[in-house]
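Risk register update: the risk of archive-format incompatibility is retired. Evidence:
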Amino acid sequence: MTRHVDEALLRLMMAGGALAPRRALLQGAEDATTAIALGVAGWRAHGCTPEQCAALERPDPKAWASALRWLQDDHHHLLAFTDAAFPPPLLDVPNPPLALFVAGDPSLAWRPSVALVGSRSPTPGGRALAARFAGGFVEAGLAVTSGLAAGIDAAAHQATLDAGGCTVAVIGTGPDRVYPDSHARLQAQVVAEGALLSEYLPGTPARPGHFPARNRLVAGLALATVVVEAAQRSGALITARLAAEAGREVCALPGSVLNPRAAGCHRLIREGAALVERPEDVLELLAPALRHQLPTLQSRLATPTEQAPPALLPARWADDPDYQCLWRALDHNPSGMDSLITHCGLTASQVSSMLLAMELAGIVVCVHGRYCRTP
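Archived output:
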């Protein structure tokens, strides 16, 4: 994105007020620069209020300078909802963002992901479960999304990074702020190895209303939201509700009836959330949606060439005898699931989960229900 478009889009972001008129203005124009060039009459025609028009004409100098400084970094980005790089799932959330500030790699927000959320004061067992599920999703090739809050969010992000996986954090402050303060190191690691997303201008502090709004983006990005521990009034339940309303899977881990942090999970299960005990339970639920997403994801992230090198078993599976056996059973002639199960001596659930992970890694394709190595 060129600098003049950044500045025009910044003016739209800084106008404040309702998002709908500004989205209509941007969508009706060729780009942000054209939208700004319409002037007051054009802005009003798209529903902008007098206050928004005044802000579009004269952006706040301090906020303007702060945002431009932040965007000078090559790893910082501003993506309009009309931008081809904008994550498609977020176009379907309630009141979608006009634009996103992204620190890190914007393409990571395109990857199929699972949201791991829960209590800000979890039990040690809850933290361990969040880490276990995050590791399982990394093993399957999925990204892990969360809100960088204290507790389960932080445990999920850290475990994903420790496992060498992809994590996406959506925050309720400006992209240059850290909340809570104790997460400065974790946030820096997320930016360096994953992606940090915010719909708020640089310099925006933490405000109570921002976090429920942030939750709609966490829920919207992910194919499923998994609640690890949550009390009856936990913000994680808001994320779960928003995920359900967006047509995403909602999963909850059961806990002890004596643990108040499990009460919210039990409530979700009573209301229809899937009861899950292992990462594989979530992967089985997501298999149809993931296979539906694969063609779009593969065309977005990589364009194959006629002289592509032969597919190799990724290093993370090179020492796993089950994956080695399945890899040997696969060749360039499609094989049925039953044949692979018989050859490997594994359960249908195990083989299905492993094949899905290999599909996401780009080394296996499914052709009419039969599997082979990627040509």
